[in-house]
Specification:
Layout (H helix, E strand, L loop, with lengths): L9 E3 L1 H14 L4 E9 L3 E9 L6 E6 L2 E6 L3 H4 L2 E8 L2 E7 L5 E2 L6 E2 L1
Parallel strand pairs: 1-6, 2-5
Antiparallel strand pairs: 2-3, 4-5, 6-7, 8-9
Length: about 110
C-alpha cells in the first residue's frame, strides 16, 4: 500500500513569512494569511490575499516558516504548489505568486487562467 503524500498547496519564502509575521505583529491581531482566488480580469481568475483574523469553517490550514496559511476549499485546486515571495523592485514592493498551474496571464499581470 502506497502512502499518499500531500503537496503543501501554498508555501512562503522566508522573506514573505518575515513580512507577514511583522505585519501581524504591527496589527496586534490575526491568525495568519488567507490565500484564495476569485473570478476576475481578462484571463479569468485573480488572487485574493488578506490577513485573517479568524479561521473559517471551509478553510484548510497549512504552515510555512511559522506562518499559518488559510486556503478555502474552492481555491485549493488553483493554488496547489504555489510559492509566495515578497519582492522589492525599485519603488514597488509586494507579494509575488509563483504558481505552477498558471497556463496564461493577462498583459497587466492582474489575472490568470489554469
Amino acid at each position: 500500500m502506497n502512502a499518499k503524500v500531500d503537496i503543501q498547496p501554498v508555501t512562503l519564502t522566508e522573506k514573505a513569512a518575515e513580512h507577514v509575521r511583522s505585519f501581524l505583529a504591527k496589527r496586534g491581531k490575526g491568525v495568519g494569511l488567507r490565500v484564495g482566488v476569485r473570478t476576475s480580469g481578462c484571463s479569468g481568475l485573480a488572487y485574493k490575499l488578506e490577513f485573517a483574523d479568524v479561521v473559517n469553517a471551509d478553510d484548510r490550514q497549512f504552515e510555512s516558516h511559522g506562518v499559518k496559511i488559510l486556503v478555502d476549499e474552492k481555491s485549493l485546486p488553483y493554488v496547489e504548489g504555489t510559492e509566495l515571495d515578497y519582492t522589492r523592485e525599485g519603488l514597488n514592493e509586494g507579494f509575488k505568486f509563483r504558481n505552477p498551474n498558471v497556463k496564461d496571464e493577462c498583459g497587466c499581470g492582474e489575472s490568470f487562467n489554469v
